[in-house]
Amino acid sequence: MLKDITLGQYFPGNSPLHRADPRMKLILTLVEITAVFLCKNMYSFILLIAFTAALVIMSRIPPRMVFRGLKPIIFIIAFTAIINIFWTKGDNLLFEFGFIKVYFEGVMFAVFMIIRIVCLLAGTSVVLTYTTSPIAITDGLEQLLAPLKKIKLPVHEFSMMMTIALRFIPTLIEETDRIMSAQKARGADFTSGSLIDRAKALVPVLIPLFVSAFRRADELAVAMECRCYRGGDGRTRMNVLRYSALDFVLLAVFALFCAAVLLINRFAPGFSL
After folding, report:
1. For the residues of 20-48, what is the DSSP string, one character each?
2. What is the dihedral of CA 151, 152, 155, 158, to 10 degrees?
3. pLDDT of residue 273
4. Residue 229: which of 168, 156, 166 has the closest Cα?
5. pLDDT given at position 246
6. How far is CA 210 from CA 36, 96, 160, 265, in A?
7. Angle (CA) 143 130 230, round 5°
8. Rounded distance, CA 247 to CA 21, Å?
9. Which pTM value belongs to this model?
10. Can you tell me the distance from the alpha carbon of 52 to that of 126, in angstroms, rounded to the nearest whole number?
11. Which helix (H) or strand (E) holds 71?
12. Which of 32, 155, 175, 191 could bridge to 145 as Cys pair (CB 3.0-4.6 Å)?
């Protein structure tokens, strides 16, 4: 399961999304999130699925890699679906067993929520983290938040922390997998027993993981000090960010998608949230 976590990983490539400016991709991510939560009926959700699939194809990232990244949230998706099925009331009763009642509205709500979660994670990951290096994300985020420097907010430090966190997610996942393999070789069992027993079995994993994380943080701090890092004041960049025609084309496409969702919600018939 740990090897299936692709959050924070960057897949190099030369697709239109890879070539887009990181500042624009941050803006596109916000537009994508807004559009996902604006979807209200089945036609807008169908459009959302098609748009997310188009993003995956445009990124040229293998779909299996995108789906692998969804495996860790299967429990959250299943839990959300169950809550919506059994807690949502309606007028069309489909199934009744004692106090358990399942309505058509509850099933549709569950389907819509599953689509929303999957498309939200897949779409934003493809637009941002999968196609943008951590350094590019740092530069883009810092320049977008640059106006906040006038009110003395530490924009550079905040961007640096975000990037370091993204950068070390795959490293910590790999370290966790290595520690678990070592503990299994010593006879540890992480798959059998009750939920409490499994939680207790993770203690020998968490302690060395925290020690390793603090050691890596200390080594990183020493390395930055040895390179005379003193924050963002007066620092220059090797690659200067510039918007291109591709960025504005992508912005227009995402804006049209958001407008299409609003029009479908307003004029297209069908079951809606």
Report:
1. S-HHHHHHHHHHHHHHHHH--BHHHHHHH
2. -120
3. 61
4. 156
5. 94
6. 36, 49, 21, 48
7. 40
8. 7
9. 0.79
10. 9
11. none
12. 155
Which amino acid, one-letter code, is at 80?
Answer: T
The token duo for 158 is: 């905040």
Q: Where are the domains of the chain?
A: 2-167+241-267
Residue type, 50: A
Token pair in block for residue 38: 């604006």
Q: Show pLDDT as tens, one digit a residue, over the chain (273 residues).
A: 455 555 667 888 899 999 999 999 999 999 999 999 999 888 999 999 999 999 999 999 888 888 887 877 888 888 888 888 888 887 788 777 777 788 888 888 889 999 999 999 999 989 988 998 888 888 888 888 888 888 888 888 888 887 787 778 778 888 888 888 888 888 877 777 777 777 777 788 888 888 888 898 899 889 988 988 776 666 677 777 889 999 999 999 999 999 999 999 888 776 666
Which tokens go with 249? Answer: 């084309």
Which tokens in the block code for residue 9? Answer: 């990983």
DSSP states of 176-242 as a string?
A: HHHHHHHHHHTT--SSSS-HHHHHHHTHHHHHHHHHHHHHHHHHHHHHHHHTT---STT---SS---
Mapping DSSP to helix (H, G, I), strand (E, B) and coil, where does residue 14 land?
coil
Measured between alpha carbons, how far is 17 from 13 in angstroms, rounded to an integer? 9
- What letter would DSSP give residue 148? G
Note the pLDDT of residue 94: 79
Task: Check residue 20 and give its pLDDT.
Answer: 93
Give the torsion sign (CA, 53, 20, 32, 122): positive
CA-to-CA dists, residue 203 to 23, 42, 157, 183, angstroms: 41, 45, 33, 11
